[in-house]
UniProtKB/TrEMBL annotation:
Superkingdom of the organism of origin: Bacteria
Keywords: Membrane, Transmembrane, Transmembrane helix
Coiled coil: none
The species this protein was found in: Planococcus halocryophilus
Membrane spanning stretches: 41-61, 73-92, 112-131, 143-166, 178-194
Record protein name field: DUF2834 domain-containing protein
Taxonomic classification: Bacteria, Bacillati, Bacillota, Bacilli, Bacillales
PANTHER family hit by this protein: PTHR36009, TRANSMEMBRANE PROTEIN (PTHR36009:SF3)
């Protein structure tokens, strides 16, 4: 029920409450390729919305035994983030006795050290964006002037919460689960550190 409520609230916020005018300065800068005009923190959050789905593809495909298949929701999250994942967690994430849907070759790849290290490197590269210097005041201005930044900020926090929940839900016996609270990197580290015991 909580996931359904969050989903409806997220939709309501995006449609009715998100601040921003008719012209979106951040969206215009992205389409024009003028990334230098965007505050590094805004850019890092924007890029993170591409990293979260990669992490969720890994988590959900490795645990695709639930009532609904995970792949449509995980793949849709690349385009609409938590808007795609919340219905899955609300209705489809119910344990069954079925076998894992994910092909063996894909399980091996997604659980491989190579793939997990690649995800870690992507996280590091995105974090390096912040070394350019960022301004919380500039982010606040962008939040209130750009509906894209407003919605993606809320989306980021929902995805973060879902990622923490996923680790505790799918891997209750994993060691160092508290690392899952580190956005994006944390769940990957949990998988990496527990690779042998979670097979």
């Amino acid at each position: 029920m909580i996931f359904l409520i969050v989903w409806l609230l997220l939709i309501g916020y995006a449609v009715f409450l998100a601040p921003g005018g008719e012209t979106d300065p951040i969206l215009s800068a992205i389409f024009s390729g003028d990334l230098g005009a965007i505050d590094p923190l805004v850019l890092a959050v924007f890029n993170a919305l591409g990293l979260f789905p990669m992490m969720f593809v890994t988590l959900l495909f490795l645990n695709d035994r639930q009532k609904w298949p995970a792949w449509p929701f995980a793949l849709l999250s690349f385009g609409i983030g938590a808007f795609a994942l919340l219905p899955y967690f609300a209705f489809g994430n119910r344990k069954t006795d079925r076998r894992l849907r994910t092909p063996v070759w894909l399980v091996r790849f997604l659980s491989s050290r190579f793939w997990l290290v690649v995800l870690m490197l992507f996280w590091v590269i995105n974090a390096l964006t912040l070394l350019q210097g960022f301004s919380l005041a500039a982010y606040q201005d962008a939040f209130f002037s750009s509906s894209l930044v407003s919605v993606m900020t809320v989306d980021w926090f929902v995805l973060w919460g879902l990622s923490v929940y996923s680790v505790y839900h799918f891997y209750p016996k994993a060691k160092r689960k508290s690392l899952a609270w580190i956005p994006i990197l944390g769940p990957i580290l949990v998988l990496y550190l527990n690779k042998k015991s979670l097979r």
